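In the previous chapter we treated chains in isolation. Here, by contrast, the input contains two separate entities that must be folded as one system, with a combined length of 549 residues.
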Amino acid sequence: MQALSDVDLTIKKGEFVSFIGPSGCGKTTFLRVIADLEKPTSGTISINGMTPEQARQARAYGYVFQAAALYPWRTIERNIALPLEIMGISGVDQKARIKRTMELVNLSGFEKKFPWQLSGGMQQRASIARALAFDADLLLMDEPFGALDEIVRDHLNEQLLELWKRTNKTICFVTHSIPEAVYLSTRIVVMSPRPGRVTDVIESTLPHERPLDIRESPEFLAIAARVRDGLRAGHSYD
Amino acid sequence: MTEAATNLAHPQAASAGLFSRIAAGSVFPVVSILAGLVIVWYVFAVILNGPFQRDLDRRAGETPGFVEFVGKTWSQPKPTLPAPHQVAANFFENTFLRKVTSNRSLVYHAWVTLSSTLLGFAFGTALGILIAVGIVHFTSLDRSLMPWIIASQTIPILAIAPMVVVVFAAIGITGVIPKALISTYLSFFPVAVGMVKGLRSPELMHLDLMHTYNASASQTFWKLRVPASVPFLFASMKVAVAASLVGAIVAELPTGAVAGIGAKLLSGSYYSQTIDIWAALVAGSVVAILLVTVVGIVGNIVERSMGGRPA
């Protein structure tokens, strides 16, 4: 079965690109193809001039899953150390990176806790810290806040924007929430199902500085309306 | 970020478990069920020992009253079914009142059986893990080995045990090794099956994560598959250690062994010492309970140190 067809897209360094669409539109598949977790049947994908496989081997991206996927037998700091151990980074350097990334996601003080001792939002933050620990330029996030409640999600969206500004990463972010996509992105890719395809690509006109209440501004609502139009055009509401 | 951490570390709550359980009254039902079983046992002792007792009384020309008759069925020297107090007295006498080096001491016999049980259990666990690692990594082993492993467990151990002992004796190996190997034969199976399941237990997402890190097969094995399999290992080791004990006892039956719980069972049946047989069985169960408990405790300690949520 064909999950995706005719997707042509260039993402620039430092961009925050959201992929939005109903379930079954292939947005997750697209992200997994970029991450070399899935092989495309045709077409090419190039990440800084590398194939997805080469990019994976070069550890060029960090991946954040829908669930935190922390290893339950490791403490939070040992979970963040996991990619560092695998990549053969020295112990001293590991400590410094753990400290830095835990500060980045505001989890300092929870180093020795096991995952079950943390709330869902904190677990997901730990998994973001784990993806940041080895300093890949690209961050792939697959509905990372989809399982969290609205209040926690708002909070994490704000934190993620902050983090993106500070680290200057390129972020590909899959979501099915319109406000989340509009709030976070510099560019929004609207996708539709059967077969998965891109129906609209929207450049955000929102300023770089985005307080949470920007979501009541007419500019924000205009972009959200255009996303909705794109979804409707792709029969996402049928 | 202001979400509260759900810190659930309350060791006091866990240690209060026993007392609160007594207070909650779950001890009473347990005790009454045990008492019921003992009563049933006494009733069956009367029923099963009755015919022989009537026979004895007829020859002696006695006509005892009901109470006297019941008392006699509970105190025969070689009863068909010994009464609980007879078994208890024999067990107590042979466990606590004899020197542990004595041939009549149950502690001595239990130790003989225990040593080959532990050796066989160690072999079996190692073999089981080895087989599981092979099966998980090579599909050809999965296809070729698994049917044989399952077939091996359908062969009655009583048929295998004498052959193993005889073959090893022929090449000059006697004593604890052949007995331990029979334990191994029984105990590797649960460990192999449990570990295959355990090593395959990591979620797809956890495996994908390793893939995104470009982790090698051995890194995935040591950092993901092995820790994920630990709960499965201890669950199957509990079964395996009990199977090891059965193997060790069975191995003592056909070997003409002079020591061990199996030897005690055999000599008891030669001389119709039914009370001795039952006492030896009790000793065997005590050893089994101890072994399973120890494995369980070690498992709990290991899982706790691996971040297990206190129950």
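The domain at 106-305 of chain B is CATH 1.10.3720.10 (MetI-like fold). The interface with chain A takes residues 1-9, 203, 205-206, 208-215, 219, 223-224, 227-228, 230, 306-307, 309 of chain B (CB under 8 Å). Compare these points with the single-chain example from earlier in the chapter.
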